[in-house]
Sequence to fold (331 residues):
Amino acid sequence: MSATFDDQWLCERILVNDVHVAADEILSLYKDKILRAAPSESEVLYTVAPDIVAPSRADVSLETNLRAYFDLSLEQYPAWTNLETIGRVHAFFSFNHSMALGPWAAYLLAPGRPRCMVLHFDAHDDLASPKVGATQTRGVFAAPVGRATLDLRDGATIEEFVRRGFVGIGSFIVPLLHTVEELDLIHIDREAPETVQSFAIAPDWESYQTFTGTGISRPKVRLDASLEAARLSYMRTSDVRRALEHAAGRDVILDIDLDYFCNAFDNNAPPNTTALLSVDQVTCMIEELGENLNASGVVPSLVTIALSPGFFPSDYWKSALKVLRHMLAKI
Fold:
């Protein structure tokens, strides 16, 4: 078996000598991808690509809005990022939330950095296990295919592993929790209880079988009710003001996934959590967040914003980004 990385947004081209390796074994590694197979008598060439079709079926305006607002195609958008200085804050914009791993790692792993708090506004916790394996070096992880390594102190390797699908939108936080010495993560979710649920984060490992038959240990986290002397903590609440109270006086990363405001196209979420709100309702929520942020006095050291195609309505991007930039300018 051999694997090569295509420089386009294709994940992998995988040549399997054993034609009996089933497609579902390949897809077990790439559950959110499209698989194309070209079999011959002795081998199969699999091309594994991002699922760029399914989101557009749900959000029928996605392709049009990518062209209109960003001059991007469906194939191009996952690579897009933009770093802006808005007022007193540095804001990193991306479509896919997993791209935030780069600026988070660069900030949190800088020498002498004090204990930081991440305010994670999101409809999802993003604490799933990525498809990477353990190495002997903290902060360095192995690819499940080939010999590449993910080094959280090397932004180029982060981008490569995100591009290849090994670190996804639902799993990008976990490698960092296995690397930083200490961190406080507050997940603000509109579907969470108003009361604060508090846990210690316990980094752990789980066995994972790749389609090649190789077993790897991949990183995961457990949430432990015991908070005594926790170097990594996790809190979950829907109460924005209470979350900001915890952030007062702290070094803060403000992280906003637009699906926090409207998760309308999430096919895996319960139907009662995916209402298509109006654009006015969404912009009002953003304005309210800005008011609470200003009242709290919290000035984030870094802001990351994910546009969340396939979850947040692309028809609302223009209005939402305008209000978000205005909110950040007032900090």
